[in-house]
Amino acid sequence: MRIIHDPVELQTLALSVRRTGKRIGLVPTMGFLHEGHLSLIDEAKKRSDFVIVSIFVNPVQFGPNEDLDKYPRDFEHDRALCEEHGADVIFAPAPDAMYAPDRSVWVEETKLSRGLCGALRPGHFRGVTTVVAKLFLLAQPDVAVFGQKDAQQALVIRRMVRDLNFPIEIVTAPLVRDTDGVALSSRNKYLSPADRERAKVLSRSLFAAQRGELDADGVRKAIAGTADKVDYVVWLDADTLEEPTENTREILVAVAAYFGTTRLIDNVLIQEKK
Ligand code: AMP
């Protein structure tokens, strides 16, 4: 497994790999890898011949009062896990190598990124689409794997790929949970044991919604009664992120809430009975 820091070196390698006829799979991450990330690497392995995992805490997707500086990092642990899961390359650039001080080009999705996390984290999705577009041009993937954990992000990326004609297949892999139901997240590391216990309310209420035992209001009440602050609880068409209609195929129930100072997101999908 090679570790590459230089963007141009990655692009040169990726172009040469493609010339040999191999399919490249890309898994973009911010590191501090857990089983959720590893499931994406495994999925990329199945769908390609050469897997590139990027590890980059992308500064431009963090707001001024967010956790950029304290975002957890453990490169040696990540390296061992990537190796174990058969990645071919880790791409770990420094921020300066990705962004020129006088950069002036952004990639922005203007519809799906407006609500939910986009409304509460201004500029977040513009940072995500910009870095993912750059990673696509550097890693030259045939297929890129994202997690359903970040449901809105996956939709925004799909829309970017469709609207800008990136020749890349986007795969959305299922959300991976801990044994107690809590969605795996690098940010879980911030939780105190008591907050971690309280955080179970997210998956518990979402599962109850899935079983038809709670409606949107019920989910909202359950979470508001336990979390320190609720950013949103929504019940939307999973393809459009708009209010469900008679054409809705699948409902996305998505939540974002704080436990202590840690903001967690979680979601489930509910098939509409036709
Ligand atoms: P992050 O490192 O948090 O930016 O996440 C990198 C990728 O891993 C994104 O596509 C996430 O959606 C995905 N991911 C993070 N947590 C999970 C999880 N629990 N299950 C599945 N995918 C995940």
Question: Can you characterise this structure?
Answer:
With 274 residues, the protein is α/β, with parallel strands linked by helices. It folds into 2 domains: 172 residues, Rossmann fold (3-Layer(aba) Sandwich); 80 residues, 2-Layer Sandwich (Pantoate--beta-alanine Ligase, Chain: A,domain 2). It is 37% helix and 21% strand. It contains 9 helices and 9 strands. The strands form 2 sheets. Strands 1-4-3-2-5-6 form a 6-stranded parallel beta sheet, sandwiched between helices. Helix 3 links the parallel strand 3 and strand 4. Helix 6 packs across helix 7 and helix 8 runs antiparallel to helix 9. The protein is globular and about 55 Å long. The termini are far apart. The protein binds adenosine monophosphate (AMP). The site of adenosine monophosphate has 17 residues, from helix 2 and strand 5.
- Calculate the terminal CA-CA distance, rounded to whole Å: 48 Å
User: Which secondary-structure class do the elements indicate?
Assistant: alpha/beta
Broad shape: globular
CATH homologous superfamily caption of the largest domain: HUPs
* Mean of pLDDT: 97
User: What is the strand content?
Assistant: 15-25%
Task: Note the main attributes of this structure.
globular; 274 residues; 3-stranded antiparallel sheet; 21% strand; binds adenosine monophosphate; Pantoate--beta-alanine Ligase, Chain: A,domain 2; Rossmann fold
Q: Would you spell out the secondary-structure blueprint of this structure?
A:
Layout (H helix, E strand, L loop, with lengths): L1 E3 L2 H13 L4 E6 L5 H13 L2 E6 L19 H10 L4 E3 L3 H4 L17 H5 L3 H16 L3 E5 L3 H13 L5 E5 L19 H18 L5 H9 L4 E9 L12 E10 L2 E10 L3
Parallel strand pairs: 1-4, 2-3, 2-5, 3-4, 5-6
Antiparallel strand pairs: 7-8, 8-9
The structure holds adenosine monophosphate.
Adenosine monophosphate binds next to helix 2 and strand 5.
